[in-house]
Amino acid sequence: MKVYVIEKGYYSDRHIVGVVETEDEAKRICDLLSIKCHDDNISYDVYDTKQFTDKVLRFIVTNDYDEWDAYYDDYDLYKYYTDNTEDYEDHFIIYANSPQQAIKIAQDMRAARIAKERMVSA
Q1: Do residues 116 and 70 share a domain?
Q2: Are strands 42-48 and 15-20 parallel, antiparallel or unpaired?
Q3: What is the torsion angle, in degrees rounded to the nearest 10, for the CA atoms of residue 25, residue 14, residue 11 and residue 58?
Q4: pLDDT tens string 92-109
Q5: Do 79 and 111 sit in the same domain of this protein?
Q6: 94, 95, 2: which is closest to 55 by C-alpha?
Q7: In this model, does residue 50 exceed pLDDT 90?
Q8: Within a 10 A sphere around the Cβ of 7, how many other Cβ atoms?
Q9: Structural domain of residue 89, as residue ranges?
Q10: Distance (Å) of CA 70 to CA 31, 74, 81
């Protein structure tokens, strides 16, 4: 289910005004608040309430000096990737159910890349 979160303010003063179920309601409330509050910094964002239950999570996986790390990409930094990807050497965008699973997938991808490089250079 999608919800529309109405927000007002700037930077550290930004706060949630309300949550509605339709985009029309969100637009109407933003328009009303803009006029009533004489404030043009009122907007809404769309959130999917099923984000964590319907899909696997997107992780950023890194390998620095053989230390593997995986963290949830909560900022959608790599939105344009829809599949598991090594975007540059030893830095991966992985869709998985857990950080451990994401690391394992990235390790397998890295091993496949290294094997392919060795075959080409031989």
Answers
A1: yes
A2: unpaired
A3: -70
A4: 999 999 999 999 999 999
A5: yes
A6: 95
A7: no
A8: 15
A9: 56-121
A10: 42, 12, 17
